[in-house]
Each structure stands twice: as C-alpha cells, then as structure tokens.
C-alpha cells in the first residue's frame, strides 16, 4: 500500500510552481556557467586589452593568478580597473558572489563605459536575487550601448525569470531576435517569448 502511494506521488505531474522553480534553478546554473567561463573571461581580456595592465616586479599581472594574488594586487593598485575586474572574476570562481559584486562595482566606477563589466555586474545581481539592481544595470547598458545584443537577451531573462514582468521580457527578447536573427540563443529566446506570451495573457 505504501509502495503504491509512493508511486502515485512520484508519478504525479509537477505543479506550475514546481516547474517554474526547476526552470529558475536551471537558469541560475546557466548564468553561473556564463559568468565563470564566458563573459567573465572575456571581461578581463577586454579590460586588460583597453587599459595598461598593472605590473608587479616589472611583470604584467596574469588573469590566471590566485584569489590571494588578486587581492594583493587590488590593495597595491586601488585605482586600476583591470585589477578590480580580475579580482571580481577570482571571487566568482571562488563562489564569493557578494564580494564579486563589490569588485565589479568598483571596476565599473573606474571604467563606466565598459559594457562587459556592467553586464557581469548585472548577472551577479541576478544570481543574488537582486532583480531590480540587475535590471537597472542592463537598462543602463542598453542606453549606453544600444547595439549590445546580449544586454537585451539578459535583460529579458531578468524581467521574465526574476521580476515576472512577462510583457516587458517579451519586448526585450523580441528586440534581441530582431537584431541577431539566427543562432541557438535566438532559438532559446523564441521559446521564452512563446512561453511568456502565454503567461502574460493569464
């Protein structure tokens, strides 16, 4: 009897809230992966490529150094955006999300036009559940760089998965699809658009 009851419970269809919670976990995992191996990596390269890299004992700072090394460099070069960005990445790789946010905020103050830094900051806010802050940063990125297609893509997800503003999320993703046109992310965006159009009419 107990076994039959267990089978019934295990075989039931997940509720909408359970499915949404599962999707959010998947999105968080994807965002974390993007931060650890995607945008974060390019952000350090981008920043280091656009500012003179700091040096220690005459040697350039390496993006692959340890968290302790980045902390030491940040203390020695408090006004270096590249160092602040490298420290943020090191914090991310160590799973220290709040410290990463603080370092990205500092890097962005030093280099306010850097769209990759701003997007990384927004994604960290998203992963911390600070959706309003994430949305604000992505809005600013779109204002500064209206051709930054990834900003529309992430902004749509923050609005949809974070703030549950499905109509606004659809608008941002439609803009992304319009700009990019083809690719696996475009396919994902179209799927989200279809899903959120249904939810926005409920």
From TrEMBL:
Pfam families: TPR_19. The chain crosses the membrane at residues 26-49. Keywords: Membrane, Repeat, TPR repeat, Transmembrane, Transmembrane helix. TPR repeats lie at residues 81-114, 115-148. This is Uncharacterized protein. It comes from Desulfotomaculum copahuensis. The lineage of its organism: Bacteria, Bacillati, Bacillota, Clostridia, Eubacteriales.
């Amino acid at each position: 009897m107990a076994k039959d009851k267990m089978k019934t419970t295990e075989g039931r269809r997940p509720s909408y809230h359970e499915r949404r919670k599962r999707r959010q976990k998947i999105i968080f995992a994807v965002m974390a992966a993007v931060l650890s191996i995607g945008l974060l990596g390019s952000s350090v390269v981008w920043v280091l490529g656009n500012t003179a890299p700091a040096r220690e004992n005459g040697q350039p700072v390496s993006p692959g150094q340890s968290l302790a090394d980045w902390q030491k460099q940040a203390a020695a070069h408090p006004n270096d955006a590249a160092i602040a960005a490298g420290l943020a990445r090191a914090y991310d790789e160590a799973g220290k999300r709040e410290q990463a946010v603080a370092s990205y905020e500092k890097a962005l103050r030093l280099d306010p036009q850097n769209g990759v830094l701003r997007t990384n900051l927004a994604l960290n806010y998203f992963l911390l559940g600070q959706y309003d802050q994430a949305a604000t940063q992505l809005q600013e990125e779109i204002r500064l760089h209206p051709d930054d297609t990834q900003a529309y893509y992430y902004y749509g997800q923050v609005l949809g998965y974070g703030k549950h503003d499905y109509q606004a999320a659809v608008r941002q993703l439609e803009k992304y699809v319009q700009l990019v046109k083809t690719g696996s992310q475009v396919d994902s965006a179209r799927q989200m658009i279809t899903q959120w159009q249904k939810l926005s009419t409920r």
